[in-house]
Amino acid sequence: MGPETYRETQAFLKNCWYVAAWDYELAGGKLLARTILEQPLVIYKGDSGRPVALDNRCAHRGAKLSNGRREGDCVRCMYHGLKFDASGKCVQIPGQDNIPPKLGVKSYPVVERDHLVWIWPGDPALADPAKILDFPYLRDPSWRGKPDYMHYDANYLLIVDNLSDFSHLAFVHTKTLGGSEEYAYKSKPTAIERLDDGFRVERWHMDAEAPPFHKKVVKEKNRVDRRNIARMYVPGIFFMETLFSPAGTGAKEGNLKGAKQYRNCQFFTPETARSTHFFWDYLHDYDLDNPAIASSLNVSMIEGFNEDKFIIEGQQQVLDADPDFKMNGIVADAPLAHFRRVLAKRIEAERQSLRSVAA
Amino acid sequence: MGPETYRETQAFLKNCWYVAAWDYELAGGKLLARTILEQPLVIYKGDSGRPVALDNRCAHRGAKLSNGRREGDCVRCMYHGLKFDASGKCVQIPGQDNIPPKLGVKSYPVVERDHLVWIWPGDPALADPAKILDFPYLRDPSWRGKPDYMHYDANYLLIVDNLSDFSHLAFVHTKTLGGSEEYAYKSKPTAIERLDDGFRVERWHMDAEAPPFHKKVVKEKNRVDRRNIARMYVPGIFFMETLFSPAGTGAKEGNLKGAKQYRNCQFFTPETARSTHFFWDYLHDYDLDNPAIASSLNVSMIEGFNEDKFIIEGQQQVLDADPDFKMNGIVADAPLAHFRRVLAKRIEAERQSLRSVAA
Amino acid sequence: MGPETYRETQAFLKNCWYVAAWDYELAGGKLLARTILEQPLVIYKGDSGRPVALDNRCAHRGAKLSNGRREGDCVRCMYHGLKFDASGKCVQIPGQDNIPPKLGVKSYPVVERDHLVWIWPGDPALADPAKILDFPYLRDPSWRGKPDYMHYDANYLLIVDNLSDFSHLAFVHTKTLGGSEEYAYKSKPTAIERLDDGFRVERWHMDAEAPPFHKKVVKEKNRVDRRNIARMYVPGIFFMETLFSPAGTGAKEGNLKGAKQYRNCQFFTPETARSTHFFWDYLHDYDLDNPAIASSLNVSMIEGFNEDKFIIEGQQQVLDADPDFKMNGIVADAPLAHFRRVLAKRIEAERQSLRSVAA
Fold it and tell me: Does B93 contact chain C (CB < 8 Å)?
C-alpha cells in the first residue's frame, strides 16, 4: 500500500462501459443533458426505442442539442434548425439544399440493458456489449428494488475507496447501515481476493445485532449472523450480496433457513474529475408483494449514502485545498490499494496503445 | 466561411464608440458602477449635465468611486475623502494642502446623444463624436418606443451572430417573434450586402401570417407581406427596419398603404469576454397616443430576447467547456462570417498601429 | 511612502501569535473548523481544558477531523475511526493492532489567555507564550465589553490600513463612529511614533460634537475633547484607548473629571490571502452594572464595521480585478506605510532564516 495522491484521480479509463442513466431518466423521449468523463452529452431514447448519445453541441454554432427537439430517432437543434440522426450525421439544414457529407456531431456507443443505459466513451471500434457487467437481479422477478440516482461533488474513486473498507460502517453509519462501532473492532475481512478487474471481499459478523435499516423492515430484534460479499469492478462498479440469518443457526455451514437476503448494485460514473454520477439499487428477496419494503430500504440507503456523501465531499474539499496531500495506508486499505493499482495499470495500458497507434 | 473558434471572441476593438448606458440609468446624478471591455468604471452625469466616466477606483487606495459621493461634476471617494474632477484629476485631499499634480484616475471620452451615453475605450485623441452612429428615430416624435437594458452571460459576438441569421426566428421564436417554422424553409435573404463596417440584409416574406408580437398589438388576423432590412455595424450595433403590409397590396412595388412599421436598435457592449450589456429599443410609427403599444412590444421583445438568451448563454457554456471547439459554417452564415472578418481586420489594424507607435 | 501593490499582501509572517478564536467559540467541546493562513485546521478544547489545533484532515484518507468526534483531549476521525491525541499522534486504528509510530497529523502551539485562543503557525520551537501581547482590560473587572467576531472577504492588511488612518472616520463613519466630516479637515495626528513592531498614533480633537455611538449611550449632547491613542502591532493587532472629556475642562492637561473611557482591541488573522477573521471587543469603564451599554456599543461598532467592510471588500474586488494596480501615497499614509515596511522586513528576515537553515 503506497501513498496515493489526488493527482492519480484525474485520469479516466475510456475504453470501458459506464452507466450513463437509468432508463426512467429517458422516459417520454426526454433529451437528457449529462456530462460524462468531462464531456457534455445529450442522451435520449428515439421513437424506435434506440438509445442515443451525442456531444451536446450543434456542429454549426455550438448551441446545446439538449435545448433542441427530438424528432423520431433524430434531434433538431432549435437554434437554426439543423437536424442530426442517431449516428450524429446532419440530415437537414433548413433553407439549404446541400448538406456537407462530413457535417455532424460525435456519437457514442450506447446500450440499454436491464433498465440501465450504458455508454462507451472510448474507441467505438472496441465497444463490445458482451463486456457489459451482468447484474441479473435487476431483471429477476424474485428480487424487488427501487432504482435511484445521487450526485456527488467528489471524485468517483473517493466513493470506491469508501466501499472498499467496511470498517467505515461502524463510524459513518453507526445508527443507520452499520449498527454499532464494535463491528469495526470485532469483524475482520475473512478473504480479500485480489482480481485483475478489481477485488472481492467476504466478511462474516457472527451473533450480532441486526443493523437499523434491516430491523426497520423485518421488525425483529433477534441477533443475526451477517455476511457481506462485496465485489468491486474497474472502473467503479460495486455489487454486494448481503445475508442476514438467525444467529447460531449455521448459516456459515450452509443452512439458510429463515435467512433474508439483499442484492446491492452501485455504479459510479465520473461526471468530472471532481464530481460523480451515482446510480444504485438495493434489492430484497422476501415479501415481494409489499412495496413498503423497497421504499423503506431506499430511504434507509439514502440516509446512509448522505452520511457517506458528507464525509467524502469533505475529503474532496481537503484534496482541493492541497492536491499534494499524501494519504497514509492502513491495513484495511488493502482492497482499495489493489483496486487503484489495477486501474492505474489499465489506464497506462490504454495510453500505451494510443501511443503505438499514433507512432 | 472558415471555421471560427472561441478564442477569436476574446479581443476587443478599442478605438470606437460603445454604448455605456441609457440616460435614464444616470438619472438623479447616480454613480453607476459598470464594467466595459473588462474595465470597471464609474459613470455619472454631473450637475452641469456633463456625462463622466472614470476608472472605478480611487487613485489612493483603490476604493470604489461608485461607493463615493457625487459633488457637482466631481466625485469624492468616501474612504478618505479624496475628490476627483470630471477629467479624473485629484482636486482635494482632506487634511493635506499639497496635491501631487499627477494624482488622478483615468477618464474616458463620453458623449450623451439621443438618450444614449456613448464611451470611447481607446485612444482619447481619436475620439471623434462625429463617428457616433445616428439612429434618428430615438429623437423623432413620429416614433415611439421604450428603451430597455438586458444583461447576457455570453460574449457579445454570439449575440451579433444571432441577429445575423434570421432563420433562427423560425426555431427560437416560433411562438413569439417568428411565427412559424415555414419562415426558415420558404424565405431566403434576397440581398446580402457586404460592407466594410458590417453588412446589410433585406428579406421579404410574402403572404405570411403575421408574427405573434405584431398580432398582439394590431389585433388583426390578416396575412401580411413582411420585410426586414437589417443593418449590422462594427463593433456590435444592430438597426432594423420592419414593415408589415396587407398581403398582396403591392408593398414590394412601393404601395405602403395600410402598412405598419417598426424601427429596432440594439447595442451590444462587451462587459467582459464572457458577458454583455445589451441596450435596445423597439419603436413603432402608428397609434402614437396609445402607450399600451410600446409596452406590449417591449414585453414581446423581452419574451423573445429571453428565448435568445437561453440559447446563447448555453452556447457560451459549451464554448467555456471546450474553447477549441470549431464551428462549422452553413450558407446562412455568410453575413456573420463577413462581419467577423471585417471586425478581425479592424482589430488587427488597431494592433498594427499600436505596434508602429511603440516602435 | 512608496507605492504598494496587491502582491505584497500575499505573504504571511508565520513565526508569531495570531488569534484563532474566542474561548466561547470552543464552548461545549465543539470541534471548530477554521482556516488560518491558508491552512485548514480543527480547533477544540479537550476535557482537560487544554486547547488543541490540528490540521483538519485525517492522516489516513484526508477526511475532515472537524467532522469527527472529540474524545477527552483526543479527536476521532469518524470515517474509519482513527484516533489522534492532542499532539496529533495517531493512538488508535480500529481493527489494526500496530500503529505506525510516525502516523499522525500536524499540531500547532495553542495558548488560551484572557478569553482568547492564540495559535503559532510557524516553527513550534520558537513559540514562546511570553510573546503574546497583553491586553489587560479583557480580564480587568473595572472594564466591561462584549467579545465578537466578524468575517471579511478581504486581505487583512486592507483592514490594518483602514485603522491606520483615522481620517476615514469622517467619510466612512460620518453618522456612526465618526460624527462629522470636519474631523478629517480639522484634526491632524499629533504624534506618529514609528516603532519596530508597528506604530502609535495619538490624536486630539478639541471641542467637538461627540460621535453618535457615544451619544447613544451617555445621552448627553455636550461637546467633548476627544483623544484616541491607537497602537498597531505586527502582524495585525490593534489596541485603542479612547477618552471623551467635557470640552474645555482641561483633559489635555490631565484633568479627567467627568471623562468616559473606552478600550478597544481588534485582532486580524488571515484566513486566506483574500479573507480575514476579525475578533474584537470594545470595552467601557463606567456604569458597569448596566448591560445595555456594552450591547449598545457592540451594535454601534457592528454598524460601523459594516461600513468599513463595504468599502474594504470593494477594495479587494478592485485589487482582484487588477493585481498590478499601484496605490498612491498621501501624507496620512505615513503610519500604514511604516507598518508595511516593518512587516515586510520581518517576513524577509523569516525567509532568510529559513534559507540559512536549509543551506
Answer: yes
The number of domains in chain A is 2
User: What sign does the dihedral C196-C199-C200-C204 (CA atoms) show?
Assistant: positive
Question: Is A11 within the bounds of a domain?
Answer: no
Q: Which of A103, A124, A145 is the last residue before a domain boundary?
A: A124
Kindly state the average pLDDT of the residues B115-140: 97
Residue ending a domain, choose from A61, A96, A124: A124
ipTM (interface pTM): 0.89
Share of chain B above pLDDT 90, in %: 79
Claim to verify: residue B124 and residue B262 sit in the same structural domain: no
Q: Which residue's C-alpha cell is 476593438?
A: B13
Q: Which of B165, B172, B318 sits opposite A57 (nearest CB)?
A: B318
In sequence order, the β-bridge partners of residue C22 are: C116
Residue numbers of B between 142 and 181 with CB closer than 8 Å to A: 161, 165, 167-168, 170-172, 181
Domain of residue A282 covers 136-348
Query: Among C188, C310, C319, whose Cβ lies nearest the Cβ of B62?
Result: C319
Same domain for B277 and B141? yes
Query: Do B168 and A40 make contact, defined as CB atoms within 8 angstroms?
Result: no
Looking at the fold, whether A269 and A319 belong to one and the same domain comes out as yes
| HEC readout, A200-265 | EEEEEEEEECCCHHHHHHHCCCCCEEEEEEEEEECCCEEEEEEEEEECCCCHHHCCCCCCEEEEEE
CA B348, B353, B359: angle at the middle one, nearest 5? Answer: 125
Chain A residues touching residue B167 (CB < 8 angstroms): 80-81, 94-95
**A28: number of Cβ within 10 Å:** 8
**CB B80 to CB C317 under 8 A?**
no
> CA end-to-end span of chain A, whole Å?
35
Q: Is residue A357 part of a domain?
A: no
Q: Are residues C238 and C343 in the same domain?
A: yes
Distances (CA, A) of C31 to A132, A232, C52, C72, C279: 46, 35, 10, 12, 19
Tell me how long chain B is. 359
Say yes or no: C227 and C328 in one domain: yes
pLDDT digits (tens, 9 = 90+) for C331-342: 889 899 999 999
Task: List the CATH number of the domain containing B308.
Answer: 3.90.380.10
Q: Is residue C304 part of a domain?
A: yes
Chain A residues whose CB is inside 8 A of the B1 CB are none
Nearest by CB to C96, from A168, A327, A330: name it.
A330
Strands A74-76 and A69-71: antiparallel
pTM for the full predicted model:
0.91
Q: How far is B226 from chain C (nearest CA, A)?
A: 47
Same domain, C127 and C159: no
Q: Is B67 an 8 Å CB contact of chain C?
A: yes
What does the pLDDT look like over A258-298, one tens digit per residue? 999 999 999 999 999 999 999 999 999 999 999 999 999 99
Domain-located, residue A143: yes
CB–CB of A60 and B172 under 8 A? no
Does the beta carbon of A315 lie under 8 angstroms from any beta carbon of chain C?
Answer: yes
Mean pLDDT of B130-150: 97
Crossing angle for the helix pair B334-358 and B156-163, to the nearest 10 degrees: 140
Chain A: touching chains (3 or more CB pairs < 8 Å): B, C
Cβ atoms C344, C8 nearer than 8 A: yes
